[in-house]
Design goal:
single chain, UDP N-Acetylglucosamine Acyltransferase, domain 1, 9-stranded mixed beta sheet, 6-stranded mixed beta sheet, 11 helices, 26% strand
Length: 441
């Protein structure tokens, strides 16, 4: 139990939480955020063959991890560690280039924590809890009061300061951020059972029959993989778990099930800290499959998407290469360079071709008489003349041959490329016979 919460009423905290921003700023200054970014994301298929899921491109100019890191910086949390493991070269390069602006003179940083076999010479990170356990000596160096544990592979905007204030107000040992989901989707989450004060009374990791929320039989309260711990309590639990030979070293499978019946664990509702909600619906996307990744990107081509990337009060930060503006050339009736309901990044040239409802990342070239519809085109792609791409995700560095048609004949597409359950075609350089020297970043 945090010392500063003793003998204080809820009204005291309500006044400080809502009437004095310095209360939350003090909490964020005393917090160390650790982003667990070591996973491959195998459901993204060949898109993660050469990069970790947090390093996958998103929304025209960002990487997935940029959203979590931006939430930290915008919330006032400026001491951040990023634990990496699987094929981390492009992720490390991105963080070094795009996240070095924090000032170490003020004890602000984004620090890389690659798996280094720190416990013994044969053991990499064995699970999410083990990734934190192996870096405890680094966490101790900064003496944080609270440790915020985050996943680096979801798209959302959240004020972690509001969650910290909730954690302290409820005198919790641990707080879990939760979102309510349709009960049929809850099987893929850790599901929380709570009382009327949002104290967690039960927890099931990916249950076959999820418990519904009280009064909402069609909804369940699911963990977002965002945790706040009192630092001393976290260390105690990690040391205890490391000594348990049967543990899989995972928060969802081991740590949380152990502490829920024994300690004070609270559930924080995402709706109370989500930034920029549309129609009171919090935006959160798990882009862990090709279909989910494609759909989340396609949403951004709408006139008013649910994710507001133009919010100056809560910007998404990233590494931005210095590129010329996008260029559209030719204006003949049968050869016009145009993009409709699309996002087109710097360095792109739309040369006498048509782009509809698509996202073009940086340095994409679309040559004459080509058509791109409902597609996500990653950086440095060259699309040849008369090519047709529909409902595609095209990986970085692909050179689309002249006249190639994709998204019209699914049977033909499956012979050459990966086609998802919902008919989205993934194209990589290797599938085009161009992968002799793959480029991960």
């Amino acid at each position: 139990m945090p010392v500063e919460t003793e003998n204080r009423s809820d009204s005291d905290f309500d006044q400080r939480e809502h009437g004095d921003s310095r209360f939350i700023s003090q909490l964020t200054r005393n917090t160390f955020a650790m982003v667990l970014a070591g996973g491959r994301g195998s459901r993204l298929m060949q898109l993660t063959d050469y990069r970790a899921k947090p390093a996958v491109f998103f929304a025209g100019k960002f990487r997935i991890i940029d959203f979590t890191l931006s939430n930290c910086v915008n919330s006032g949390i400026r001491r951040i560690g990023v634990a990496t493991q699987y094929k981390a070269h492009s992720l490390i390069q991105h963080i070094q280039r795009g996240w070095s602006f924090l000032d170490g003179r003020f004890d602000e940083f984004v620090q890389l924590m690659p798996a280094q076999q720190q416990i013994d010479e044969v053991q990499w990170y064995q699970g999410t809890a083990d990734a934190v356990y192996q870096n405890m000596h680094l966490l101790r160096r900064y003496h944080p009061d609270y440790v915020l544990l985050l996943s680096g592979d979801h798209i959302y905007k959240m004020d972690y300061g509001a969650m910290l204030a909730f954690h302290v107000k409820r005198q919790a040992d641990m707080t879990v951020a939760c979102i309510d989901v349709p009960i049929e989707e809850a099987k893929g989450f850790g599901v929380m059972g709570v009382d009327e004060r949002d104290r967690v009374v039960s927890f099931s990791e990916k249950p076959a029959n999820p418990a519904p929320m009280p009064g909402h039989p069609d909804r369940a309260l699911a963990s977002m993989g965002i945790y706040i711990f009192n630092t001393k309590f976290l260390f105690e639990q990690l040391i205890r778990d490391a000594a348990e030979p049967r543990s899989s070293r995972d928060f969802g499978k081991d740590i949380i099930p152990h502490i829920v019946p024994r300690y004070r664990v609270c559930a924080h509702r995402f709706v109370d800290s989500c930034v920029g909600m549309t129609d009171d619906v919090p935006y959160w996307r798990d882009v862990g499959t090709i279909d989910a990744y494609w759909e989340a990107n396609m949403e951004l081509t709408k006139v008013t998407p649910e994710l507001n990337m133009y919010d100056k009060d809560w910007p998404i930060w990233t590494y931005q290469e210095q590129l010329p503006p996008a260029k559209f050339v030719f204006d003949d009736d049968k050869r016009r360079g145009e993009a409709i309901d699309s996002l087109v990044s710097g360095g792109c040239i739309i040369s006498g071709s048509t782009v509809r409802r698509s996202l073009l990342f940086s340095n994409v070239k679309v040559h004459s008489w080509a058509t791109v519809e409902d597609s996500v085109i990653l950086p440095h792609v060259d699309i040849g003349r008369h090519a047709v791409l529909k409902r595609c995700v095209v990986d970085k560095n692909c050179r689309i041959p002249e006249g190639l048609v994709v998204g019209v004949d699914p049977a033909e597409d499956r012979r050459r490329f990966h086609v998802s359950e919902k008919g989205v075609t993934l194209i990589t350089p290797e599938m085009l016979g161009q992968g002799e020297f793959p480029v991960a970043p």
